[in-house]
Amino acid sequence: MAFGPRIALVTCQGVLDDPEWDQDLPILLEAVECAGAKPVVARWDDPDVNWAAFDLVAIRSAWDYFWRVDEFLRWAEKCAGVTALANPVEVLRWNVDKHYLGDLFAAGVPAVETRYLAPGNTVDLPNEGEYVVKPTVGAGARYAARYRPDARDTAVRQLVRMHAEGMTAMVQPYMRSIDAKGERALHFTGGRFLHADRKNAVLAPGFPYDEKKVPHPELHPWEPTAAELAVAEQALAAVPGETELLYGRVDLVDGDDGEPRVMELELVEPHLFLYLHPASVPLFAAAIVRTAVRGAR
Hints:
five-stranded antiparallel β-sheet; 30% helix; four-stranded parallel β-sheet; globular; alpha+beta; 13 strands
């Protein structure tokens, strides 16, 4: 510990090929070093990395995990067996699949109503109102689309394609408030609020589900309301396990009653948009180093 804890900031090959994809990573690498640690950037699926050599392995931009979720979870289990992993593997296992929204709803957390259609299930789509179809395991609006009731045939084709690839689909009402008020992301570290952002609607009517989408259109800093903070904190409190979470992002939209609902709870590899919030960088870096120190004891 005389030379500071050793920390791996975990990314993926796509980020190494295109550093612009994760604008936070170089900022965070420098900040963690300034906070007294010895950080390196490592690819989660690099077979040559000795994870036991680190006091903390902190997942940041492993943004290809959802293509190989079983492999990713096996890596996380192995990693957690030899060093401290953030977030904890049991949290990762729970959060990689958006069935967790059902758990939040059951725990009384205001969340977007969600139905699940696994391969073999009867196709049951809404007859009125717009709705969204997307996979339970995914990110960046991958395989997500917004439908009107008269586009049922197209939605069914999407479900057939997803089921053929082994995906379970989610069906949610399209939250109309997104078009006017956008979606808000509240970021936390160690249970402490860091900052928030707002983005515009991602899904346009009729946009093909298998086309690449802009996942964070018109992103800018946001000052959350008391109601938004309360719902975000309620969602984090409902996460299974007793271990403090190093990082977390709660994505919120408004229901028809104007009250915030949880759209997603991101605990695996959320983009924290630190580049938009310079004051948050040293706070998050210090939290990483504190977690590494605890892991090294």
